[in-house]
Amino acid sequence: MLGLIISIVIIGLIAGALARLIVPGKQHMSILATIVLGIVGSFIGGFLGYLIFHKDAAGGFLQPSGIIGSVIGAIIALLIWTRMGARRSVRA
């Protein structure tokens, strides 16, 4: 169980950092926020992989994905987050 948690945190850090490098602009995020971004991206990537490829139907539609799916999901989550943040700052 501890190994699973450590691997989720490491994959989350790698995926979140890669997503922050790929998406242009400056994101004001801490290391913890980057890890959470990668973990959320992993589940988004797993969900999209399930929808597109119908892979691992026994695991359900909410499942963690590999590093490539995690990075793609983290990019999507980061783009949504930055767009929503920009929208809130304009209204305030």
Plain-language structure description:
The protein has about 90 residues and is mostly helical. The chain has one domain (about 1-90). About 75% of the residues lie in helices and about 0% in strands. The chain has three helices and no strands.
Q: Which secondary-structure class do the elements indicate? A: mainly alpha
**What about the largest sheet?**
none
- Strand % is under 5%
Q: What is the alpha-carbon Rg in Å?
A: 14 Å
List the helices and strands in order: HHH
Shape: globular
**Number of strand elements:** 0
Q: Give the N-to-C terminal Cα separation.
A: 44 Å
Number of helices: 3
Total count of domains: 1
Overall pLDDT metric: 81
Percent of residues in helices: over 70%
Poorly predicted segments: none
Characterize this entry briefly.
The chain has 92 residues and is mainly alpha-helical.
Q: What is the secondary structure topology, with strand pairs?
A:
Blueprint: H1 2-22, H2 31-53, H3 67-91
Key traits:
92 residues; globular; 3 helices; mainly alpha
